[in-house]
Amino acid sequence: MGKKFNTIDLFAGCGGLYDGFEKAGGFKSVGFVEWEKSPCDTLIKRLNTRWNYQNAESIVLRFDIQRTEELLTGWENDSLYGSNKGLIKVVGDKNVDIVIGGPPCQAYSIAGRVRDENGMKDDYRNYLFESYLKVVEKFHPFIFVFENVEGILSARPGDESIVKRITTSFNRAGYYIIDDLRKYALLNAADYGIPQNRKRVIIIGINLSKFNHDPKTALIDFYTQILPSHKTAKQVTVEKAIGDLPSILPINSIEFKNNKRISHSVNGCKILNHVPRFHSERDQRIFFELAADKINATNKYPDVKSLIALYQKETGKKSNFHKYNVLELHKPSNTIPAHLYKDGLRHIHPDPKQARTITPREAARLQSFDDDFEFIGSIGDQYKMIGNAVPPILAEKIASALKTFINKYFEPVN
């Protein structure tokens, strides 16, 4: 495959999905869309420093994709987003071969629906796929890649299956999606070398006007043969992923640095983003006890009920969900969520002596980001963009499988 395929990345975040496409080779982005500042700043820096883009500032559009017409044609003097000529002019006369990305997953996630009193049925994010569709309809790529959480398969905003709504909408636009997404499109990132159990749905849409094969047969081949050929023989463990990072130990008493409370010392560590959040002495004590219980196999807290009871005993607060989870050294991590920016208790480091939860760098390692990938913004911003991202190694394998699929089933794209 000699030419590079032009991509547009929607809901780009900090660029985890696109980083994998760059690593796979054969892809070049002509535009990114993301509405939060810190992920945009992070993405621009990554494009400049790692992928040698000379035009990163102009092709990363910070804007609300719900305002799709303005996104496409331009906007002026917006109080938050400034002015821009719009995606159509940014792309110019280049063909858009592939659109990639996935709308924010909180409205589809099962955890989000449990927390919300109305099951997220009224959440605007249920319908962000419509903006994705409008961009696809405008640029008419021959393939799109739509990534989302497993919960999308059961989400029913307005009491109608969101998958049915998505499938019908893209069908009307001339794109074919496999009819049984749970059977074919649901995967676990841990099977592809990511040190984390992370179930995701990868929806591939084929432009029927540019396809000369039976689309169902072709996509079954992609999901059952081509993509699985990139699985790893052995899952990567937490220990393999973060075990070589420098220890960050508690200090004797709380300190202040730049008006921020400090509970742990990084001892001059130069590794990017390897700084923990602040933890109270009470939480440190709990983390030590839980990690030691796990390491020593004393099994004092064998189930969710015991962890809920511990939380109530220590904090005086009631919760229907257990707040604590210690990473297990010899297994992949539990899912790294965007909610990590709010939740400082669930991803506890397995070393009792460190008595803390994971740093952004450790979260990034568990998401398969390279150590030279620098996350810009507050520590909360860092956790959020890392949790929202597609693991780059998974993205690389999806992109590599896509190249095989294109070579096998598509005529050369001019």
3D structure, described in words:
The protein has 414 residues and is an alpha/beta fold. 36% of the residues lie in helices and 15% in strands. The protein has 16 helices and 12 strands. It has helices at residues 16-24, 37-49, 56-59, 68-73, 87-91, 110-115, 129-139, 162-172, 181-184, 215-226, 238-242, 281-296, 304-315, 360-366, 379-388, 392-409, and strands at 5-10, 27-34, 60-62, 75-78, 82-84, 98-101, 143-149, 175-176, 186-188, 199-207, 249-257, 260-265. A hairpin with a 3-residue loop joins strand 4 and strand 5. The longest helix has 18 residues, at 392-409. It is globular.
Keywords, separated by commas or semicolons:
2 domains, Rossmann fold, 414 residues, 36% helix, 16 helices, DNA Methylase, Chain A, domain 2
Topology summary:
Elements: E1 5-10, H1 16-24, E2 27-34, H2 37-49, H3 56-59, E3 60-62, H4 68-73, E4 75-78, E5 82-84, H5 87-91, E6 98-101, H6 110-115, H7 129-139, E7 143-149, H8 162-172, E8 175-176, H9 181-184, E9 186-188, E10 199-207, H10 215-226, H11 238-242, E11 249-257, E12 260-265, H12 281-296, H13 304-315, H14 360-366, H15 379-388, H16 392-409
Parallel strand pairs: 1-2, 1-6, 2-3, 6-7
Antiparallel strand pairs: 4-5, 7-10, 8-10, 9-10, 11-12
**Unreliable segments (pLDDT under 50, ≥5 consecutive)?**
106-110, 112-116, 119-125
Radius of gyration: 22 Å
- CATH arch. level architecture of the largest domain: 3-Layer(aba) Sandwich
Summarize the helix and strand pattern as letters.
EHEHHEHEEHEHHEHEHEEHHEEHHHHH
CATH fold description of the largest domain: Rossmann fold
Arithmetic mean pLDDT: 91
- CATH top-level class of the largest domain: Alpha Beta
Which overall shape is indicated by the principal axes computed on the Cα atoms? globular
Kindly give the count of domains.
2
Please name the fourth-level CATH homologous superfamily of the largest domain: Vaccinia Virus protein VP39
Percent of sequence in beta strands: 15-25%
- Bin the helical content: 25-40%
User: So how many helices?
Assistant: 16
β-strand number: 12
Q: State the secondary-structure class.
A: alpha/beta
Distance between the termini: 12 Å
Query: What profile does the largest beta sheet have?
Result: 8 strands, mixed
